[in-house]
């Protein structure tokens, strides 16, 4: 599945980065914040919107907006591109349906081995106790 969010559906704001960096950090707005509203998107259909709203509930702000902040790079352009890639990856991964688990039974040999090792461990622990009858 390949969904690419158009730049026109994203609200961008730039702020000053936090942390070390000296004068460069203090005078440039290199950190980027992007906001993407799921319900206002033209690219996603209703089923995809519902999937995103439920699967990304922990990431949503103000009900239906995804907020991504990036300040890893020194310049604003790189931070913007990185945040955009993160948004697309987040949406693509959230829209993937998880594989159904196929229930399997353990093999008889593995059950037998497990019980044998339990028996051995039990015997070892029995010899440690004070109630050993000689």
Structural class call reads alpha+beta
What is the global morphology? Answer: elongated
Q: C-alpha Rg, in Å?
A: 27 Å
Describe the largest sheet. Answer: 4 strands, antiparallel
Q: Enumerate the spans where pLDDT stays under 50 for 5 or more consecutive residues.
A: none
Q: What is the distance, rounded to the nearest whole angstrom, between the alpha carbons of the first and last residues?
A: 70 Å
> What is the ordering of alpha helices and beta strands?
EHEHEEHH
Query: What proportion of the residues is helical, as a percent range?
Result: 40-55%
Number of helices: 4
Average pLDDT works out at 86
CATH class of the domain at 7-95: Alpha Beta
* CATH topology type of the domain at 7-95: Double Stranded RNA Binding Domain
What portion of the residues fall into strands of 2 or more residues?
15-25%
* Strand numbers in spatial order across the main sheet: 1-2-4-3
CATH architecture verdict of the domain at 7-95: 2-Layer Sandwich
Query: Would you report the number of β strands?
Result: 4
């Amino acid at each position: 599945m390949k969904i690419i969010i158009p730049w026109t559906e994203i609200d961008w704001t730039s702020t000053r980065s936090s942390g070390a960096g000296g004068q460069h950090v203090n005078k440039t707005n290199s950190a980027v914040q992007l906001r993407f509203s799921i319900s206002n998107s033209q690219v996603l259909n209703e089923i995809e919107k519902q999937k995103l709203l439920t699967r990304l509930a922990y990431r949503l702000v103000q009900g239906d907006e995804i907020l991504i902040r990036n300040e890893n790079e020194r310049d604003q352009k790189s931070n913007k591109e990185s945040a955009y890639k993160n948004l697309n990856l987040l949406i693509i991964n959230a829209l993937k349906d998880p594989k159904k688990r196929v229930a399997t039974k353990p093999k008889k040999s593995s059950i037998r081995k497990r019980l044998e090792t339990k028996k051995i461990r039990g015997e070892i622990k029995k010899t440690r106790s004070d109630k050993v009858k000689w």
